[in-house]
Amino acid sequence: MKATQLLHDLGQSIWLDNITRALLESGTLRRYIDDLSVTGLTSNPTIFDHAIKDSSDYDSSLTELMKAGKSGEELFLELALEDLTRAADMLRPVHELTNGMDGWVSLEVSPLLAFETGRTLASAKYLHARAGRPNLFIKIPGTREGLPAIEEATFAGVPVNVTLLFSREQYKSASDAYLRGIERRIAAGLNPDVRSVASIFVSRWDAAASGKVPEALRNRLGIAVAMCTYKAYYDLLGSQRWQRSFNFGARPQRLLWASTGTKDPNASDVLYVRALAAPFTINTMPEPTLKAFADHGEPGEVLPADGGDCEEVLREFARAGIDVDDLAGQLQDEGARAFSKSWNDLMAVIAARCTALKAS
Fold this sequence. Notes:
Layout: H1 3-10, E1 13-17, H2 21-25, H3 28-35, E2 38-42, H4 45-53, H5 59-67, H6 72-97, E3 105-108, H7 117-131, E4 136-141, H8 146-155, E5 160-165, H9 168-187, E6 196-201, H10 203-209, H11 221-237, H12 240-247, E7 254-258, H13 271-275, E8 281-285, H14 287-296, H15 310-319, H16 324-359
Parallel strand pairs: 1-2, 1-8, 3-4, 4-5, 5-6, 6-7, 7-8
Helix pairs in contact: 4-16, 5-16, 7-8, 8-9, 9-11, 11-15
């Protein structure tokens, strides 16, 4: 049995961190779903940037959208929705079989809005309505300014993938915003079954600590932070506050491991997949990581609900001079800036491609 099937049977969802026209047209995504137990996917501007820049797969759609008067951000969102709605339809049977727990795709609001609550909310509502698919998440960053938008989007019935979360504290703030939206729906007599996931970025911790800690701590920070967050996740799901919402028909926000591709060339290429095996979570894997795990991976021991030795490991990093709280804020700020740069790069690629198509 493939390692991906074993992980799936353990209770962890495997999502692909990629979407391109070629994946859809070639049948590769279909094969990943059928053969590698993939039950969802995520997208981001960098993925689309490379797909549009490095192939002619989007030229026909770009030409048609230009003829319709589309340009810039509006054109891109139409292009992305073409791919993501097709993927959502492909995953719809999974969505229905799991009663909406799985089978999701994700589309990001413009990262340029990361610090603008009102515009983020308006964009989330528009994209959700425009997609017209029950299994499409709108990605909203869990920044300070994003948290009110997460609450309001949830209250409005928009399924949200909370992104750019790096620490237990950031996760708790995001889950609180989501739960406030659910509680407001219950108070208003609305159906509280609005789904969400909270995406914890893992490998960037170890990239940030690389060269700054003893060899014994190498590539251990991201996993320790994830384990502490997993404990907070379990504690929240067992709380009276959440149980009251369950009683009204709410379903829990699931924890998603993001950035699980190994960045250290000297470490295992399936390091974070093996280390973060846990039921009722999601691991969204870059395509090379998915293939590597299917080829030679195996699930590790299931994460302990009490966080295991995560607190002691974090104390070791503190003794080595790593301020985890400060680094979490730094990583979130850097992530927001990197997402904005990727978005601007994507707009430039689209503009250049459109100019070239007009010239030809």
